[in-house]
Automatic annotation (TrEMBL):
This is C-type cytochrome. Residues 660-753 form the Cytochrome c domain. Keywords: Heme, Iron, Metal-binding, Signal. It comes from Emticicia agri. It holds the Pfam family Cytochrom_C. InterPro entries: 6-blade_b-propeller_TolB-like, ARM-like, ARM-type_fold, Cyt_c-like_dom, Cyt_c-like_dom_sf, DUF7133, Galactose-bd-like_sf, Quinoprot_gluc/sorb_DH_b-prop. Residues 1-31 form the signal peptide. The keyword Signal applies. GO terms for molecular function: electron transfer activity; heme binding; metal ion binding.
Amino acid sequence: MKVSKKNPSKNLKIFLFFAFCLYLISSCKSSQPIQNTDNGNNTATATTAPQQDLVKDVINSFSSTSPQMLLPAGADPNSDDWKGVDLEAKKPVIPLYASEEAKHFLLPPGYRIEPVLTEPAIQQPGAIAFDGNGRMYVLELRSYMLTADSKDELEPTSRISRWEDKDNDGVYETGTTFIDNLIFPRFVLPYGKDCVLTMESDADNVYKYTDTDGDGKADKKELFTNKYGRSGNVEHQQAFMYWGMDNWLYSTVNAFRVRETPGGVIREKTGFNRAQWGITHDDDGKLWFQGGASGLPSYFQFPIHYGNFEVANEFAKGFDIPYGAAVKISDMQGGMDEIRQPDGSLKRVTGSAGNDVYRGDRLPESLRGQYFYGEPVARIVRQINPVVKEGLTTLHNVYQDQQSEFLRSTDPLFRPVDMATAPDGTMYIVDMYHGIIQEGQWTQKGTYLRTKIEQYQLDKVVGLGRIWRITYDGKERDKTKPKMLNEKTSALVKHLEHPNGWWRDAAQQLIVLRKDLSVAPALEKMALTSPNVLARMHAIWALEGLNALKTETVQKLLSDANPRIRVQALRAGETLYKEGKKELEASYKAALSDANTDVAVQAMLSHKFLKLPDLEANIKNTVEKNLAAGVKLVGAQIITPPRPTRGLGIMAELSKDQQEMLSRGAVIYNELCSQCHGNNGMGTPAGDGKLLAPALAGSARIQSHPEYAIRVILHGMDGAIEGKTYAGGMMASMKEQPDQWVADIVSYIRNGLSNDASLISKDLVANIRQKTADQTGMYQYDKLIKLVPHELQQREGWKVTASNTASTRIGGNVSPISAFTYEGWSTGVKQEKGMWYQIEFPKETAVSEIQFNSAAMVKRGWVPKPNTPPGQRPMVQTHPRMYIIETSSDGINWQQSLSSQKGNDGDNVIALNPKKAKFIRIKLDQGIDNPEDDIPWTMKQLKIFELN
């Protein structure tokens, strides 16, 4: 049956006059509550500062009359796809000023909502974060969906701004553009004083930006870590770099975590978090990841670094049903089947963004520990109650019985995309206030969603955005202004006792970043004796972050009366065990018999993570004695890990030969190298702040070209390294060892010590041994570094092109430069002779080596049956079958620099005779002959090396 909707808009001219009057009124600050008694909910104070009239500018961009809607070309009005769809002409959805939008919010009784920052100061906010002085950094995604075709989405027009409430009236009135001209930045993480970490879309490097002169604008840019990104649809790339309580940095999508150490940034593999936009943690430090397209939280049962555990029924019945207010316009991607009639709201969650476990102190106590996340398609913020029973968590929608949500809006432009516990103890909601919330891939011409976008002119509502504060009657926001960046480290320790989790997190992070060991005694006392259990947890992890946590302290904490403290001791003790404190093994085994289910489960997880001796036997024994559901599930899945059935991809597994190589390398390292370089590769302390030998974990030297490490092992090294001396003195030559032995140990230190670099072959060792046969004596670092190829990290000014590139984004192709990223580049079509991949350098460059990985992929067009194991998926090899290397000085006249070579599945290393050229390209010398083999050419983690 055709759905007819009554047009709610008045005559457009009258509306504009009315909106303009409201604008004049709202230009003055107001403290009067705005009441709305719809469904027993009420809203709150709408306080807004004077603003330029961006809202009016948007209204003026609308067509004077909405066009008569027609079916897309070729569409059948009688088909099921269009049956019941209202295609009548409509007036546009008009944006409202913040004061008017506030009237459309529906909150439970007692709650109030007010704007703290709005357009034009900010535009299209996507996330917020606070530094130690309470200044708010706003991720402004100014290029997001400016048209229905996502035109210019990767233009460098986005920014990160920083805002302060200097007069302490609750409104952030003073701001600066901290970083400008960004390409759709993925996150903002405050990282100490006047410093943030961020990265751009379709990029691979995370950078540290610092304001060194105090003008509120970053003027220093440093590489923080690489191999962090991927390319493709902007909704599918990594986001939300997040500092966990365990002092590791996590992000969505990526199945690894990173951490800065004195020797560099190290990384460890984790489980798949299956998240897209949102990470937070609870008071016990457990991370909560937020899915995107699923509309549901993605992983939350156990800390992600223990891997994935599949838990049935982790969402209560009916959890996937949202209860948004009547938005009327029915602009949901899924079409009429996903729309609740007659109000036009969403009837099944379909997209989610942003999350927060509320840990503040200025909202009702009943909210503490509750999980909140946004559903911008449904225009709601959900409050979720995590119920833990026998070690397993089930999520319940708090307002499901009332068929409602914590926060709803009847304004179709309300788009909650992030939320956070704020320094003032309340909760902030980031509202992009935008017409379209799906990326261009889902708004193509001819789709139901595109039809609705054009019917209501939603594509015209761009460039706006608000950040809201939620308060509660009788609980005034905390007006104490944080000044942690200016305080002594000893003062930060006191903040670990603060009732607001934001203060505790910020204080812990700054203590760890400062590396001030003078506070270690106070932290240890707090960890062992404080009556505040939350302060004790943070003190434990502050000690861990300072590398000041003692084995005897962990053992005392493992006997603590509070099971929450015992759990933290097990987690923090993992760092010590990895450093070689094997005396903790008995404590971990004893914890398996703990009467508390959570402690027993944690002991099993730690056993798995640390690969403790007799793992399977100990786990089986625990499961036999403990009947708790969580113990049985974790035990069973440790012994027989579940096959991944969903997620964003399956990582390539090492071959049997590669696994054996790493195992042999681990034996060599632990028997010979660990005494000086440390059990975990972080270097063995030698007193006075010195190390016996340089750290290998996180070392850029080790992870760059393997020739550096091979030369050092073959011939040794003496003297300072990058100006730094070590107490252990020289590194002895080991050239008497066979090539396979050298390959094993170099492969292990490049891949097995929190590093992520390629393995090497004994043939490469033999080649370098022969090349360096005339070397006499040990190397000096300054001379050696000039002899080995170095990777060209900075690619500013490079022009990267290809004959073919897979299109994965509406409105344009992914740039071929994505070959340098973690995700990679593809021709998108079958390999054919003559296809090429080309780099033009700003100046002539002598390329000595090219490295890339061509990973196997599932055969295109193959449709899996439900729960098909990964091992049964038909895979094809995407490496170039045959290729040549060509160089040119002008891009017109080409010379062949390498004869025809055969590509390899996996890693490809192309050694060249260095010759300066402005252009270099890889060109296929053979295609795929079989017409049925539709196999593209792919490359990822491309590296270009030159000699000094």
